Every structure is written in C-alpha cells, then in structure tokens.
Amino acid sequence: MKPVVGIVVSNKMQKSVVVAVDRLFHHKVYNCYVKRTSKFMAHDEAEVCNISDRVRLDPSRPLSRHKHWVVAEILRRVKMYVPPSATASSENYTKAQ
C-alpha cells in the first residue's frame, strides 16, 4: 500500500484519529468523475492531530482490529479559535461602568 493524504474528522479517542480520504475515479458507463470517501483509523502517538488537519498516513502492521495506519506527518494545521477568557471579559465590563 502507498501513503495516503486525508483530513482528520475525529480525534476523540486516545492515540487514535479517524481520517477521511477522498479519491476521484472515472466512471466508464456514466463518463464522468465520481468522488468516493474512505475513512481510516490511524495511530497518533503524540495526540497532536486536531479536527480538519490535513495529514499523511503510512501503512503499518495491524495495531488493533481497525487500525492499520500511522500518522506520518501533519501537512497543514488548522488555526483553532480560542475564545477570550471569562476573566478578561469581566475586567472589560468593570472598566466600562
């Protein structure tokens, strides 16, 4: 198997992520391109992947019943929105009064 590139859709497990991989192929009967999505479970040892990160997966030996891939590298990180803390908003409120 060769390495695949996909988008992380779930990181709720410990040291595991679910990656959606899209592929296009030409349908001979309909004479158009069709997109198919496959979901793979992959091992993320450092637990650094977030949802919507673009990652490259390398094949490995079976790590569990469904995990046969390892996250090789993170190609593109997503900028996470960090809401302002509650203390900062309360300080602004007291200054306005």
What is the topology?
Elements: E1 4-13, E2 16-27, E3 32-43, E4 54-59, E5 67-76, H1 86-96
Parallel strand pairs: 3-5
Antiparallel strand pairs: 1-2, 1-4, 2-3, 4-5
InterPro entries: NA-bd_OB-fold, Ribosomal_uS17, Ribosomal_uS17_bact/chlr
Family: Belongs to the universal ribosomal protein uS17 family.
Protein name: Small ribosomal subunit protein uS17c
Discrete helix count: 1
Secondary structure class reads mainly beta
Q: In angstroms, what is the radius of gyration?
A: 20 Å
**How far is the N terminus from the C terminus?**
64 Å
State the share of residues found in helices, binned by percent.
10-25%
Give the strand order, joined by hyphens, for the main sheet.
Answer: 1-2-3-5-4
Could you name the ranges where pLDDT drops below 50 across 5 or more consecutive residues?
none
Which overall shape is indicated by the principal axes computed on the Cα atoms? Answer: flat
Largest sheet: 5 strands, mixed, barrel
**Strand-and-helix sequence, N→C?**
EEEEEH
Mean pLDDT: 89
Work out the strand percent: over 45%
Instruction: Count all strands and give the number.
Output: 5
Keywords:
mainly beta, five-stranded mixed β-barrel, 52% strand
How would you describe this structure to a colleague?
One of the primary rRNA binding proteins, it binds specifically to the 5'-end of 16S ribosomal RNA. InterPro entries: NA-bd_OB-fold (IPR012340), Ribosomal_uS17 (IPR000266), Ribosomal_uS17_bact/chlr (IPR019984). The chain is mainly beta. Helix content is 11%, strand content 52%. It contains 1 helix and 5 strands, in the order βββββα. The chain has one helix at residues 86-96; strands spanning 4-13, 16-27, 32-43, 54-59, 67-76. The chain has a 5-stranded mixed β-barrel. It is flat and about 70 Å long. The protein starts with a strand and ends with a helix. The mean pLDDT is 89.
